[in-house]
Structure to design on (672 residues):
């Protein structure tokens, strides 16, 4: 196994990777920018290398600096986490040239699948159903309008290099097309350095269901069941769970097979995720392959009992998969909630700032993959994810209740979080019934307001805190007035011995 | 002792009676609460209210306190203090209204120049924070007096990015 690897990421995912490395006895090298000098991943790693200014292009996206850091510290491999350089084929090529192992798929696979157009073509050729839409990029909004009329509004304008909800716009009519195209393109340039866009049909009533796949270098490819990720805001998932409440065993098997076919057709190696849309009639369509470890991978780990990061390292090191499809069985139910620094009352706007107090939930079946601490300043420069709260229980109902309990004991002060919003979603009738579609938030929670039932208690707490801080201030003041103790008057006195 | 405490837009008086060591009665509206408390640490207070125990978490933000109770957060402000601060801050030049980012951000584009006539709702500056773009719009019809930022600048809430002067003050109906 590798002796030492470099983790080219920050926040909770860097911590997640470092954790498994610790389990395996693999040393870790963290990298960081100006904004992250005191970030948790820097404090947790065996070594840390400073990259440069907070601006991602000068630090976490700077390929040469990162590869240099690996070379200088003697790290044999680089784990990219998710985001940043995780799906950048140029970076993988550079790693290959410099004889540093990239823990992920080969450059060509990332290139093919990262380009939504190429990946759609691969799937069509191997018989995996895809969503209706373009199979080539298009810069002309007028041509987009013609296509949109063919598949029917609403449509999605998507960055071909996209991911993570960035560079996507919904278009409901031809008038909105030009603005949507330029906005999606500009966002894509900023996020991925490539502004190319295409069009596909937007299903208003659909579920987002994805399959975890694993493939080694010996041609063994398996799937590790599904994750249902339909609850999204701004096209970004906030609640994920497994198993999905709508998949029958037969449909699960069929989709699982399609996922394995998709992985094989693209020559996939390492851990990846095949995303599907499932419409109301249980027809599924290939969306894309995420060629990285997903944010929501922990729910799969909870029900299958595997450590995906460990398997990623083993595959990258050249080992053969030790598990086969028959070994994979889901036990119980797992749910993940993403805790971002954001304001659910104000369209989930990012809410950077200093975390003045943090208390993580604990207990049986509760896991919190967290990248922050009390006193940490959440930088404006990066994705505002703070942590992922994951629960595991015997049934979906138990998992929901466990998650609500965990959220209620999760205290994050100083920045806004969606904790109260998530509690209301989990308690809502449609969620409890498993009636979750990608429009869930817009349909049921678009004018959500926080519950004010404990406002009296909050006012009482304010008064108590005032009383306590007045008392504290008085104590400090009277201590200053008091006769100086020998400790204050002795000056540079030192104990002998 | 009486406090006037504001949560969202609702300000209610809180009357504190029988203040003893770590015990008092709070009267809010028609309701009286028997309160006893233990401070666990700087941010955690264990309250017993009418015999029911609950842990509350507090962060003093200067202009108010964030209070977290059972997964819900409240921002509680002292209305008397707020009024004092307001009168202090208010000054002349109230025709100039602010175009300011809702959060720390980076300027992506400036869509107007000095002397431009803008309509209410027209995009004036696009900022980005945490990879998300936000368009800041003109708060009313007016003329751009001054552009204070350029592309790439880091800006904070309260920073005035563009000064706009109202063209026609809206006529007030006098009764």
């Amino acid at each position: 196994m590798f002796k030492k690897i470099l983790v080219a990421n920050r926040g909770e995912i860097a911590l997640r990777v470092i954790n498994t490395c610790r389990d395996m006895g693999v040393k870790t090298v963290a990298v960081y920018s100006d904004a992250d000098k005191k970030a948790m991943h820097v404090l947790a790693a065996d070594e840390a290398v400073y990259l440069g200014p907070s601006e991602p292009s000068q630090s976490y996206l700077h390929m040469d600096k990162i590869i240099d850091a690996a070379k200088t510290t003697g790290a044999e491999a680089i784990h990219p986490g998710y985001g940043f350089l995780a799906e950048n084929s140029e970076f993988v090529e550079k790693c290959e040239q410099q004889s540093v192992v990239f823990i992920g798929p080969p450059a060509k696979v990332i290139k093919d699948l990262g380009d939504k157009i190429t990946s759609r073509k691969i799937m069509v050729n191997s018989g995996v159903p895809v969503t209706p839409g373009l199979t080539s990029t298009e810069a002309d909004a007028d041509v987009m309008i013609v296509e949109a009329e063919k598949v029917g509004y609403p449509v999605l304008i998507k960055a071909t290099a996209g991911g993570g909800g960035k560079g996507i716009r919904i278009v409901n009519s031809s008038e909105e097309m030009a603005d949507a195209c330029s906005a999606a393109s500009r966002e894509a340039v900023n996020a991925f350095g490539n502004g190319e866009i295409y069009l596909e049909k937007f299903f208003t009533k659909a579920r987002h269901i994805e399959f975890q796949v694993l493939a080694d270098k010996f041609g063994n490819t398996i799937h590790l069941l599904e994750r249902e990720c339909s609850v999204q805001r701004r096209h970004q998932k906030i609640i994920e769970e497994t198993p999905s409440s709508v998949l029958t065993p037969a449909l699960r098997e069929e989709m699982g097979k399609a996922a394995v076919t998709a992985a094989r057709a693209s020559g996939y190696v390492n851990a990846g995720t095949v995303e599907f849309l499932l419409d109301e009639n249980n027809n599924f369509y290939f969306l894309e392959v995420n060629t990285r470890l997903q944010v929501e991978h922990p729910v799969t780990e909870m029900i299958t009992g595997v450590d995906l990061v460990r398997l990623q390292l083993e595959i990258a090191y050249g080992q053969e998969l030790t598990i086969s499809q028959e070994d994979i069985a889901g036990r119980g139910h797992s749910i993940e909630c993403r805790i971002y620094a954001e304001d659910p009352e104000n369209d989930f706007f990012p809410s950077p700032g200093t975390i003045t107090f943090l208390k993580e939930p604990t207990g049986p079946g509760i896991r919190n993959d967290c990248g922050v601490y009390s006193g940490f300043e959440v930088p404006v420069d990066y994705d505002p994810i703070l942590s992922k709260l994951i629960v595991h229980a015997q049934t979906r109902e138990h998992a929901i209740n466990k998650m609500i309990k965990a959220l209620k004991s999760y205290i994050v002060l100083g920045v806004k979080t969606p904790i109260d919003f998530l509690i209301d979603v989990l308690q809502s009738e449609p969620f409890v019934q498993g009636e979750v579609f990608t429009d869930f938030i817009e349909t049921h929670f678009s004018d959500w307001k926080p519950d004010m039932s404990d406002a009296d208690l909050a006012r009482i707490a304010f008064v108590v805190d005032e009383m306590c801080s007045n008392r504290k201030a008085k104590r400090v003041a009277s201590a200053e007035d008091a006769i100086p103790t020998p400790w204050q008057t002795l000056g540079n006195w030192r104990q002998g011995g | 002792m009486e406090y006037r405490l504001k949560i969202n837009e609702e300000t209610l008086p809180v009357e504190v009676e029988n203040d003893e060591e770590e015990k008092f009665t709070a009267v809010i509206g028609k309701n009286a609460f028997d309160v006893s408390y233990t401070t666990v640490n700087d941010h955690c207070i264990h309250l017993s209210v009418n015999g029911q125990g609950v842990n509350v978490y507090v962060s003093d933000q200067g202009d108010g306190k964030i209070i977290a109770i059972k997964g819900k957060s409240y921002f509680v402000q002292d209305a008397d203090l707020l009024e004092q601060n307001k009168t202090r801050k208010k000054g002349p030049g109230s025709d100039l209204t602010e175009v300011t980012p809702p959060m720390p951000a980076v300027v992506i584009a400036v869509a107007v120049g000095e002397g431009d006539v803008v309509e209410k709702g027209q995009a004036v500056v696009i900022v980005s924070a945490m990879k998300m773009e936000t368009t800041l719009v003109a708060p009313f019809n007016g003329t751009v007096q001054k552009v204070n930022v350029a592309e790439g600048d880091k800006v904070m809430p309260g920073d005035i990015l563009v000064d706009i002067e109202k063209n026609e003050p809206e006529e007030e109906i006098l009764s």
Notes: DSSP finds one helix and 16 strands in chain B. Residues 2-86 of chain B form a domain with the Glycoprotein, Type 4 Pilin fold (CATH 3.30.700.30). Chain B has a mean pLDDT of 85. The longest strand of chain B covers residues 10-20.
